[in-house]
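Shipment paperwork, digital attachment
Item: protein structure file
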Amino acid sequence: MNKFESRYAQSPKEVKHMDTAALRENFLIENVFEANQVNLTLSHFDRYIVGGAMPVDQKIALPNPDDLKATYFLERRELGIINVGGKAIVTADGEKYELDYKEALYIGKGTQEVFFESASPGEAAKLYINSAPAHHSYPNKKVSKAEAEIVELGTPETANHRVINKLLVNSVLPTCQLQMGMTELKSGSVWNTMPAHTHDRRMEAYFYFEVPKGQSVCHFMGQPQETRHIWMQSDQAVISPNWSIHSGAGTSNYTFIWGMAGENLDYGDMDHCAINELK
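Attachment content:
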């Protein structure tokens, strides 16, 4: 049984008065993966969809929720996938793509049928999904880590030494507005996206994984002068409004996937926040 949830957008004024439970209810996506189903959450921030498909011993289809009012899911949308589980097979309008661990796939507007399956039932695939509205049809394309644009940032001294793998970005392949990538923190480093930033022209979503058992990540959000935090576990996602910072610190190093959509495709279009001015 697939799951679909729609969440309204909130302003900084509303979020300022939210308690822990309200913050988690509105922004945290706790159950991204469940066996043999597709879970999807639609955020009204840029109509962005975050979700996961976990085929264990069945071939499962990308659903078309009634809320989209579409003939099929990708009638007016584009889709990005990054595999965080066992080897996967994704079939898009009859063409098969094999995705190993941490490999990505872009599926363009107009693709009518998408199916997910695991290459081996004993090693279930976990296909993390992001989707945004699309105005143009671009070719489907698989992107491996070797094909990604790679940037190394931070230092061990500031506990934010990390490698950014830009997988589904316009320097690698054409998209309408969807961008996705993966940031891997080095051993001993725990901070991501620090110094923090906002970008009023697009929203973002983070998915944390490879968090060691018994460890957690504290995700920071909110306006730079009015921050909030959400404690997160491995294989969970969080929605970040366009007006909010999106940063985190773990009790160990970890990996996270970032996805975003909005007005432009300029990765560097961001407003930086000085660390000592955050409140």
